[in-house]
Amino acid sequence: MAKFYGVGVGPGEKSLITLKAVEILKKVDMVVAPSKGEGSIAYSIAKPHIRGEVVFMDFPMTYNKKELKSKWEENAEKIRKFLISGKDVAFITIGDPTIYSTYIYLLKELEGFEVETVPGISSYSAAAASLNLPIAQGRQNFAVVSSDDPEEIEKILDLFGTVILMKVSRNYDIIVKLLEEKGFIGHLVIRCGHDDEKITRNLEEYIGRKVDYLSLIIAKKEK
User: CA distances (Å), 186 to each of 35, 151, 166, 218, 222, in order?
Assistant: First the structure.
């Protein structure tokens, strides 16, 4: 039976893809890229290293669980057929495959097949590096949270001195207010690792504006 790989290609900068990811991409028969056409960010990073066939699969950005599940099952079935036919398949994803990735859902649907997950550099690790900002040192703890639930964010801000907020576009204005109330200094990183990357500590600049989906905040409590 063929093998299925989940390959993290890093946050966006083409040189941040790992040697192992490159090795896998060069040897597999097929690479599956999320999104449509060459608009896929993961594909634009991986493209120079791909030797086999490329298949683009649409994964809708929706909160409709029924629609999502149906699409995941449909795409997983396509991959299952490729594997049964004897083709090694790599599914590519930006960042790391185990952090907020569509790959996680495919992994559940492909139980029974041989699988290897290839880690990638996460967006928040790359963002901290761009800032020359230590995430944690000594015995410090830190939290990485999605930004769906403002009440949950507020609780976490009370527990940790360093908080990384992912997908901040969903509740940006509320998050900025909470950080100010809780005494945090925030660093907003937009499209980390891309040519149009933006970094700012002036969080208020983006209040009331549409913030790019690929945005995060690294927040540290003032001493």
Answer: 31, 18, 13, 6, 10
pLDDT at 114: 95
Residues in the chain, total: 223
Q: Report the 10 Å Cβ neighbour count for 135.
A: 17
Q: Tell me the HSE value of 26 on the side-chain side, using a 13 A CA sphere.
A: 8
Q: Work out the end-to-end distance of the chain between its first and last CA atoms, rounded to an integer number of angstroms.
A: 56
What secondary structure does DSSP assign to 175-204, as a single string? HHHHHHHTTEEEEEEESTTSTT-EEES-GG
Query: In 3D, which of 160, 171, 221, 166 has the Cα closest to residue 190?
Result: 166
Tell me the domains of the chain and their CATH numbers.
4-118 (3.40.1010.10), 123-221 (3.30.950.10)
Model pLDDT for residues 23-52, shown as the tens digit of each residue? 999 999 999 998 865 578 999 999 999 999
Tokens describing residue 137:
């040192």
For residues 16 and 10, give the distance between their C-alpha atoms in angstroms, rounded to a whole number.
6
Residue 52's identity, in one-letter code, is G
Q: Report DSSP state, residue 94.
A: S
pLDDT tens digits along 154-207: 999 999 999 999 999 989 999 999 999 999 999 999 999 888 999 999 999 999
- pLDDT at residue 203, as a whole number: 96
pTM assigned to the model: 0.89
Strands of the sheet containing 198-200, edge to edge, are 142-146, 162-166, 215-221, 184-190, 198-200
